[in-house]
């Protein structure tokens, strides 16, 4: 019984501490918000109505076969960036697929030559990647739409696997 009373007291004390900390944090936030200069507040865009979605912005350029048919006949060599972990569906050069097998992305004609990996892919929107012997995955800094042959070159080590992410 005494143990139960002690737990009750600790619970009440913890709740009071959280409430006190929360009110101090709220006061600090309110003071910080009130201290913003009027020019900085005026420069912020007005909030959009709840029923209107913000327009999608993309920071990755897209090369489209429909807009540039001549580019589809050339091997593309986009710049690379180190990949972040992702759960995007993808097709791999070893014939496996990650996640749900992409329905709109088909890749093939894979070739490896030292640090270079070359593949041909066709899909509405996709991004190629290469796995290198330095233990890293590198992805294209450009997305592709349509049929393209791409060559990715490892900055360090040799290419041992590659593929493409389905972004559609």
Topology:
Blueprint: H1 2-34, H2 38-43, E1 62-64, E2 75-76, E3 80-82, E4 90-92, E5 97-98, E6 106-113, E7 116-132, E8 137-140, E9 143-153, E10 159-166
Structural commentary:
This protein has 2 helices and 10 strands, in the order ααββββββββββ. By secondary structure, it is α+β, with helices and mostly antiparallel strands. Strands 1, 2, 3, 4, 5, 6, 7, 8, 9 and 10 form a 10-stranded mixed sheet that branches. A hairpin with a 4-residue loop joins strand 4 and strand 5 (97-98). The chain is globular and about 35 Å long.
Radius of gyration: 26 Å
Major sheet:
10 strands, mixed
- Low-confidence segments: 3-58
The shape is globular
Q: H/E element string?
A: HHEEEEEEEEEE
Beta percentage is: 35-45%
How would you summarize what this structure contains?
This protein is α+β, with helices and mostly antiparallel strands.
Task: Jot down its keywords.
alpha+beta; 168 residues; ten-stranded mixed beta sheet
